[in-house]
Write a structure and sequence with these properties.
By secondary structure, the chain is α+β, with helices and mostly antiparallel strands. Helices cover 50% and strands 11% of the residues. It has 28 helices and 16 strands. β14 and β15 form a beta hairpin. α4 crosses α8. It starts with 10 loop residues before the first helix and ends in an 8-residue tail after the last strand.
Length: 655
């Protein structure tokens, strides 16, 4: 990406190119004031300091903001870094601009910052910033433009500082931009932070993107033309553009959804911008008939805007070559709001004249500020709640609160615990400790007794109640959200089942051994039998017996004992017909398994037969032409469980 490069003599002309309607008297005054104030100061890059406020101003101009905000952008570092004071700015530029500049200026309580008091300084600075934003949201826009230019020039900082600033950008500034819908800035901030925090992954992605860029671009070109023509036929004047995904979102998607970079890159993104809401739905209809929409991929954010006022229709389709294309359909105004969020508010004069008749369903730009009311409300509430908290807990809860998918609850000891939205008491218990989870019987939420399945919300104070006798229930799997906890519960039950099988197997083995007067006493003796079945430890041997993967008959056979009379009432499987003389069937490479004959086709010696290995119940023999639908289904779904069997010799079967 090529950034704006600042040149002193033509700076104001550059601004004029972006927006000729600005108050240039004011801009000029601001510019010369900043020049005078920062005279002789240099950036780390060696450039004049003035380049920085000028670039910040340029970023704000690109957001189409008015001259007051732009001027405040030019002056934003004057209070922090020069000899001028607030009263000087107030005198020269008036209350409004002075307030904006003061709003973005840090507190100077701690002139000698050290690592030790950094949290205090940070907390105070964020607190002040949030208060200023809640009074005038333009403070946020200036702060974001400031941060963006600093991120663009981060190369000139020390490694340690680069990482710290990038982290802060990802934790605080990008989420703030997101809350107010300023996607344009959010994405660039995220990509730059990503580059410095995860350089390896970043460069891997950059390389991957460049490899197939041409192929992708020519495909995007083709499909753009195709869509455009189809819409034009229906008299819709659309702007159709390919949409490049930003690196950080690809990275995030690949880690959270476990998708490879390549797969995400293969998904082509197209955006259709049309004049009216009506055209949005018309275009949707055309796309749906001309392409094959993917099931459940349609999302209507026009009817139901996202919490940051984003509006669009989303749809994934596949083309004739079965390539997947992500399509977004929106009006121009929705597009501005999607990219610039609350900053689009100041475009309103331009937009107002566009088409007042077709506003149905759109968020009205003039009311954007009140549309972001909820976000401002959130900031005010947050500040009030955190009034008395110390620096560290203020910082933690600020970071956590900025992410909309996360809730933050507290322990009675005032520790903050971060959970995914929709988390329950039980998720919280497992987050503290697996044992706490296993013995959880409920919780006190804000002092009120609640059951384990209760959903938590940000701000709840949660005290988990446990009982040493309590045990996990399989029911828990239905409502717990944490996949880690789910895994732990599942392995708990696997362990229990294994234990049961082992106990049952042991009991069966001991009972039968007594009955047949087998003199198997020592562990070594048992182990030597187990080894004959290729089992190397006694517990597994018992479990195999308990699970009926192994029959006592086969043990007896191995010990050359007479097995007559075994399939009597003592047999532990009433529906199973055990073969008294196994050798009549040869089962591929497997000896000594439990065999039974299927009731559906009742195979007789001489019939062509196949075996089906059941889970834990040996092998079931069917006729090869058995037409039982259940069996046919199994045969189709799990062909790997079908084995070849044959009658070994003509022996009569009992059943
Ligand atoms: Mn600055």
């Amino acid at each position: 990406m090529k950034y704006f490069s600042f040149e002193q003599n033509c700076f104001l002309d550059e601004l004029r190119k972006i927006n000729s309607n600005l108050d240039f008297e004011l801009m000029k005054k601001g510019y010369y004031f900043a020049q005078k104030a920062h005279l002789g100061q240099k950036r780390n890059s060696g450039e004049d300091y003035l380049t920085h406020p000028a670039c910040v101003c340029h970023i704000l101009a690109k957001l189409n903001l008015e001259a007051e905000t732009l001027t405040a952008g030019l002056l934003h570092d004057v209070l922090e870094d020069t000899a001028y004071e607030l009263k000087d700015i107030r005198k020269e530029f008036g209350e409004e601009i002075a307030d904006l500049v003061n709003g973005v200026t840090k507190f100077n309580y701690y002139p000698y910052a050290s690592k030790k008091n950094r949290p205090q300084i940070q907390a105070e600075n964020y607190r002040k910033l949030l208060i200023s934003i809640s009074k005038d949201v333009r403070v946020l826009l200036i702060k974001l433009a400031d941060r963006l230019h600093n991120m663009r020039t981060l190369d000139y900082m020390s490694e340690e500082k680069r990482k710290r600033i990038a982290r802060e950008t990802l934790d605080i500034y990008a989420p703030l931009a997101n809350r107010f819908g300023i996607a344009k800035i959010q994405w660039e901030l995220e990509d730059l932070a990503f580059k410095y925090l995860y350089p390896q992954q970043y460069h891997q992605l950059v390389k991957l993107v460049s490899i197939r860029r041409e192929e992708r671009e020519s495909y995007i070109n083709d499909i753009n033309k195709e869509i455009k023509i189809k819409l034009k036929k229906n008299r819709i004047e659309a702007q159709v553009i390919g949409r490049s995904k930003h690196f950080y979102s690809i990275y995030k998607k690949s880690t959270t959804k476990k998708i490879r970079f390549e797969e995400i890159l293969d998904l082509i993104g197209i955006r259709i911008i049309v004049p009216t809401v009506e055209d949005c739905y018309k275009s949707l209809g055309i796309i749906q008939t001309e392409f094959t929409p993917l099931k459940n991929s349609l999302k209507d954010y026009i009817l139901q805007p996202k919490s940051n006022n984003y509006q669009s229709i989303h749809l994934v389709v596949s083309d004739i070559q079965n390539r997947k294309v992500e399509i977004q359909i929106r009006t121009k105004q929705m597009h501005y709001i999607a990219e610039e969020g609350i900053a689009a508010h100041w475009r309103y004069k331009e937009l107002y004249h566009q088409d007042q008749m077709n506003r149905k369903g759109e968020i009205i730009v003039e009311n954007l500020q009140s549309a972001y009311h909820e976000q401002l409300q959130w900031i005010r509430k947050f500040l009030k709640k955190q009034q008395d908290s110390d620096a560290n807990s203020f910082l933690d809860s600020l970071k956590l609160n900025l992410f909309p998918d996360i809730i933050v609850v507290r322990t009675p000891q005032n520790d903050y615990i971060e959970l995914r939205k929709e988390s329950t008491c039980l998720d919280f218990a497992f987050k503290i400790h697996t044992e706490v989870g296993f013995h959880c019987i409920g919780a006190l939420i804000n002092g009120v007794h609640k059951p384990v399945r209760t959903k938590l919300k940000t701000g709840d104070i949660v005290q988990i109640l446990t009982s040493p006798q309590a045990k996990p229930s399989k029911d828990w799997l239905k409502f717990i959200t944490s996949s880690k906890a789910k895994q732990k519960i599942r392995s708990y039950f696997r362990e229990i089942e294994w234990q049961d099988a082992t106990n049952m197997g042991k009991e069966l083995f001991q009972k039968r051994s007594r009955k047949y007067h087998l003199r198997i006493k020592t562990e070594d003796e048992i182990l030597s039998i187990a080894r004959k079945f290729k089992i190397n430890d006694i517990r597994t041997f018992y479990a195999a017996l308990g699970n009926k993967d192994l029959t006592f008959d086969s043990i007896l056979r191995i010990l050359n004992k007479d097995t007559v009379g075994l399939s009597d009432q003592e047999s532990d499987a009433e529906t199973i017909v055990e073969l008294k003389d196994l050798p009549q069937i040869t089962i591929e490479d497997i000896d000594q398994v439990l065999v039974r004959f299927a009731k559906c086709c009742n195979p007789k010696p001489g019939d062509e037969i196949v075996g089906y290995t059941t889970r834990g119940r040996g092998v079931t023999i069917h006729r090869k032409n058995c037409s039982n639908p259940g069996f046919l289904h199994l045969r189709q779904c799990e062909p790997e469980r079908i084995i070849r069997v044959a009658w070994k010799k003509e022996v009569k079967k009992d059943d």
